[in-house]
Amino acid sequence: DAVRTLIIAGANRYKVNMKKDTPSSYVPARLRSWFMRAAPIRAEEKKYLEDKFARSVATGMDVAMIRHRLDTLDEADRGHLPFEALTKCLVEGGLEREDAAKHVRDFLRQHKNQAEDDICWKLFLNEFIRMKLFHCVVQLGKTSVFGKADRDNTLTLSPKEFTAHLTKQIGREEARKQSTRLFYKIDSNHDGSLTQYELRKWYRERLKALKKAQQSKKA
Asked: In what residue span(s) does the EF-hand domain sit (predicted)?
């Protein structure tokens, strides 16, 4: 009965959330194996998910959709995937193949305990997201990019404007998850808005911390 209840809960969530235009519409990973055995996904549902992923590529990178695709490829729920699978998902997510492969190779160089045919994709994705967020802040430090993000011409960015910029870079769902926490870290005087000075100060401090950590590893 407990298993039956869990399967029904997963099916109901899937049915309700299919109406939403976010990657949260997918059945949770912990329910997937049970749900798929009890009620295999129909061809039209599979096509819907594939079309949804294709649309995300057309509108820019969507980290949440990439996470879903990686989770789908990890059929055995081992948490590990080979080099080619990671690269392919990044390419499908909007990166050039050369850039995608470079990201994975850089990760392997930083993590000597990871094998090319057995990479912890969640660890990789978390580090990839941190890198993308850092890049978003660096971009905003540029006057031309900051000016476009500052829609009301106040010379500061509101939380809404900051989230809108992140959305273009990493997708709507991931931007909503990350923006509040990151905004608070950058907003050094806690006045509820970001200046170019605060943006540049934050990423320079992050660079110093990164260099210090790398030097400690070498020592």
From this structure: 174-209
Q: Which helix (H) or strand (E) holds 120?
A: strand 119-120
- Residue 218, amino acid: K
The average pLDDT across 105-120 equals 93
Q: Is the distance from CB of 128 to CB of 106 less than 8 angstroms?
A: no
Q: Give residues with Cβ within 8 angstroms of 110, minimum separation 6.
A: 127
What tens digit of pLDDT does each residue of 10-66 get? Answer: 555 555 554 444 444 444 444 555 445 545 555 665 555 555 444 444 446 788 888
Distance of CA 182 to the CA centre of its chain: 14
**What is the C-alpha separation between 51 and 6, in angstroms, rounded?**
28
Q: Taking the model in full, what pTM does it have?
A: 0.68
| Domains (range + CATH), the chain | 1-41 (no CATH), 126-218 (1.10.238.10)
Find the length of the chain.
219
| pLDDT the model gives residue 63 | 87
**Separation between Cα atoms, residue 13 and residue 92, nearest integer Å:** 27
Tokens of 178: 């990350």
| Contact yes or no for 199/141 (Cβ under 8 A) | yes
C-alpha distance from residue 161 to each of 102, 166, 203 (Å): 31, 9, 19
Measured over all CA atoms, what is the biggest interatomic distance in the chain, rounded to whole angstroms?
60
pLDDT, tens digit (0-9, with 9 covering 90-100), for 147-185: 999 999 999 999 999 999 999 888 888 999 999 999 999
Token couple for 29: 């990973």
Supply the angle between the helices 121-140 and 97-110 in degrees, to the nearest 10. Answer: 110
